[in-house]
Each structure stands twice: as structure tokens, then as C-alpha cells.
From TrEMBL:
GO terms assigned for molecular function: oxidoreductase activity
UniProt EC number: 1.-.-.-
Residues covered by the Flavin reductase like domain: 10-150
Keyword field: Oxidoreductase
Protein name: Flavin reductase family protein
UniProt superkingdom: Bacteria
Pfam families from the UniProt entry: Flavin_Reduct
């Protein structure tokens, strides 16, 4: 199999869209990612996967902390900004949750301290100990097969 076929196959898994953020000496850095999952309920742990060429990789290592912002359906522009798809500068305002930078309006804001990191292939997996969570009642932004999507209500037969 070639790289393109592998990428296409991985794109067939529908995911939410997150922005990973970290703060180094007052400067906030963020990146759009869909490589995120929960790991453990006790203790509360999550994992993010960051590519070796991502600028945020060294920033997370420096700060030893990060946030995961699960984007709402109306936050596609934020996803595109942090994915580098929108080139012109846009000001993004961050709130704080347990001292970590978070995006207002996200379905979930998850503040984490790095508890472990593992290099696997061309990515580093950061295990984050969850220190705080904030939830909003909103629909999530979905990504599937290279396109943004939205949830639709399932119709039930009576």
C-alpha cells in the first residue's frame, strides 16, 4: 500500500475536530488535530498525537501542559486557522481553564498536564492527566473523508 491509500483509509474514520493549545512564556500556540482519544477514567487520562514536524511539538515539551478543545459545529473557521488553511492573520482570543489556554464556545475544553510521552513512528504521543474540564451544550464539528461535516438527527420509526 502507498501513503495516499493509507491516508485515504484513515480518513474513512469520522472524527471530531480539536484544537490542541499550549502556552510557553505567555505565547499561546495551537494546532488543529483529530488524533485524540480518552485513555483512562481512573486516573483521568487522554492522549494526543503530534507529528515530528509540527511546530507545537517542542512547545508542549517546554510547557509540559496542553488543552484539548473539541470544536463546535460553528467553529470550522477556527479549525481552518489552526490547520494553516487560512493564511491571513486572524486574531484568536483564548480563555483560561486551570491556567491552560482554551477556546470559548468549544463543545469541551480539557486542561491537561503531560504525564508521559512516547515516540512512535513519525509522531509523539502525549499522555495528558486531565486537571479540569468545561462543557458546552452544542453540536460538534465532524471531519470525514477530507471534509467537514455535521451531525444529523436520526429518525426513529414508531
Amino acid at each position: 500500500m502507498d501513503d495516499r491509500q493509507f491516508r485515504t483509509a484513515m480518513g474513512k474514520f469520522a472524527t471530531g475536530v480539536t484544537v490542541i493549545a499550549t502556552d510557553v512564556e505567555g505565547d499561546v500556540h495551537g494546532m488543529t488535530a483529530n488524533a485524540f482519544m480518552s485513555v483512562s477514567l481512573s486516573p483521568k487520562l487522554v492522549v494526543i498525537s503530534i507529528g515530528e514536524n509540527a511546530r507545537i511539538l517542542e512547545k508542549i515539551k517546554q510547557s509540559n501542559s496542553f488543552s484539548v478543545n473539541i470544536l463546535a459545529a460553528d467553529q470550522q473557521e477556527l479549525s481552518m486557522i489552526f490547520a494553516g488553511q487560512i493564511k491571513e492573520h486572524r486574531e484568536v482570543v483564548f480563555d483560561r481553564l486551570d491556567g491552560k489556554p482554551v477556546l470559548a464556545g468549544a463543545v469541551a475544553q480539557i486542561a491537561c498536564e503531560v504525564s508521559a510521552e512516547h515516540v512512535e513512528g513519525d509522531h509523539t504521543l502525549f499522555i495528558g492527566k486531565v486537571t479540569d474540564i468545561h462543557l458546552e451544550d452544542a453540536e460538534p464539528l465532524i471531519f470525514y473523508s477530507g471534509r467537514y461535516r455535521a451531525l444529523t438527527e436520526e429518525k426513529t420509526l414508531v
